[in-house]
Structures are given as structure tokens and as C-alpha cells.
Amino acid sequence: MRPVEIKEGIFWLGAVDWNRRDFHGYSKAHKGTTYNNFLIVDEKVTLIDTVAEEFWGTLQCNLAQVLGDRKIDYVVANHLEPDHSGCLAKVVEKYQPEKIYTSPMGQKAMKAHFKYTDWPVEVTPTGTELSIGKRTLSFLETRMLHWPDSMLTYCPEEKLVFTNDAFGQNWATSERWADQVDRYRLEELMANYYANIVLPYSPVVLKTLATIKEMGLEIETICPDHGLLFRGDDCAWAMEKYQAYAEQKPKNKAVIVYDTMWHSTEKMAEAMACGLADEGVSVRFMCMKNNHHSDVMAEVFDAAAVIVGSPTHNNGILPLMADMLTYMKGLRPQNKIGSAVGSFGWSGECVKILTQWLEDMNMEVVEGIKNQYIPDHEVFDKCYEQGKAIAAAIKAKL
After folding, report:
1. β-pairing, 282-287 with 251-258?
2. SMART domains given for it (predicted)?
3. Who is most buried in 20, 55, 163, 287, counting CB within 10 A?
């Protein structure tokens, strides 16, 4: 895509990765993604972040269209992950910027990653201000939102903030603004991104939103490094969404995620789903053979209860459930009720193991159900009642 002037003298230069489906090696990007970076043409021409290395040609072309014969004076590196710094070394080599501004942790990451010895790097702790002509850039460290080096760059004259990964979505589009696309799909992809990328850092999100409020920053444009940009009233909308995401208030919803060998665990889980549904709880029923762990996590994110199921396999649980639970634990979901279900043949460790995972995630555990060999009507009745009991626990929690 060609450069887009988002404000007078400020350009979106990013690359649209239409074919990307694997995002960072662990989550799905079903709609592709974008690598947004920005150029401010002022007395000092300033580049905000870069793009993934394979889009170096796109970045050069876009820079040439805007810059003509002018050079890049300053580079701001809000985040050093390779999809945003992939072209940083090439930019430094080609344009020889006077300064590269980054956070204190960004400097450490930059040295470790690029092994530079002579780059003109300048550290910008929170509160640092930089005049680039008629505009000012000020910097706010957002350490662990979502990497140690993360920071925001704010331009008060434009009431515009560059947020790197915060407020992002994985969505390859020809549109650049949130008000140009379907709102339902935007919110779905924004929540999916939060659930898989930002969720563990929710306390930092809340702290950052509070800091922005305390500092009285006026924001009329939000420019994340992935997906659509926000302007006007959409800025308040996006920040309200992030406030709600970070607070992790559960909805009247349960996710049953399981794997099964000969369908006994699956049938027991179905009986639980019936009990939940009959009590008015919305249920997502997700077999790990058919669902990617990042899609499951997008559903777990706002659910009040998570029921995990697996038969016993080699004195453990099935591998796809071990993968799912490892992924889920790393994202540290909060405010969940948990329970387990599983069948077994000659040994029955599955429910004990699954329950331990739930306890390790600080979930409020409702005792699980296990059954040897093929479940009968009595077992199904027990599972159905278990679903109703979990529904009651959900209602008490909401």
C-alpha cells in the first residue's frame, strides 16, 4: 500500500501482510496483519519504528515517495521486537540518522540484538521531551506492555500517540482507520489480539491508562503498530475497551476445552455443557483436534468458567491438552472458575493432573469428575448436574 497522510505532515508508511497466518510463531492471524510505522516530516524528519525485514523494499519505496531528497534525522524505536525493528539496521545504514531514541530497556535490547558499536542511540526515560521543529515528542515507558523495552511516544501538538503493540489487531486491510471497517469484526480481532498478546500484562495496561489520565494527555489519534488506527471518538472507545479487557470481568459464559481418545471424555463434557446451557450459561465447546490454542484463548479470555477434559494417557493427559494448558497458564487469565473431566482405562490420573493445572492458574476449582471405561446414564446425569453446579457458581460470581 502507498503512504497515507494521517495528519498534515504525518504519514502511515507500513506494510500490509495479507498472507500472514502464523503470528509470532504461537498465535493465528486469520485475517493477516499489518506492520504500521510512521514518518513525521518536520524540521527534523522522524521515523517511528520500522517494519518486518521482508518488507524492506516496501519501506524504502514508501520513504522515497514522501521524502524525495530529504533524509531521516531521527528514528524512534518504541519496541524492538523484529516485526517492528526488522529494518532498523538497514535504515541506520542507508539514512545515517543523527539520533535513535529508545527506552532504557530498549537500549539494552538494541545492543544485544544488533551488536552495534557506533549507533547514535539516546535513551529517553519517561518524561523526556524532544523538539523536532513545530512539534514535540514526549516519551512514556510502558515496561512489560508487552516487552521490557516498550514505550509510547506522544505528540501534544497533534494530540496523537504512537502505542506500538498496545491497541493493535491482526487485520490486513486496505483501510487505515477503525471508523472505515465493520465494528463487530474490529472488536473481535482487537479482543483476540489482547487475549493472546497483552493479557499477562493487564496490570501494566491499567497503570498506563491511569498514568495517561493523571498526566492529562489529550488524545485524538491512536496509532498502534498493527491493524487499524483510531481517531476522534474512537480513541475513547479503544481506551474503554482496554480498561475492560485489563479488568478481566467475566461474562456469563463457559468454555469447555478438551481432547478425547474414544469419545468417552467428549460425551461426559457434552453432558456438562447441557447442564450449563439449561441454566442459561453461554457455552463454547472446543475440541483441541479442531481448534488452535490461540482461538481457544480468545474464548477463555472473557469466560467465567473453564472446564478442561482429557482421558488418562500414559499416566498423564493427551498432548494437545498439555499444549493448551501450558499456553493458557502463560497468559495468566484471572477471575475464572475451573473444573475437570476425564475418562480412563487402567489408571485414572487425568482429573488430578488437570485440576492441578487449574489450581496453578489460581482458578476457583469445582471438583472434577472421572469415569472408568464407557460412561453410562448414571455418569451422564452426574456430569449434567456438575454443569448445573458450575452454572450456579458462575451466577454467584457475576
Report:
1. parallel
2. Lactamase_B (SM00849)
3. 163
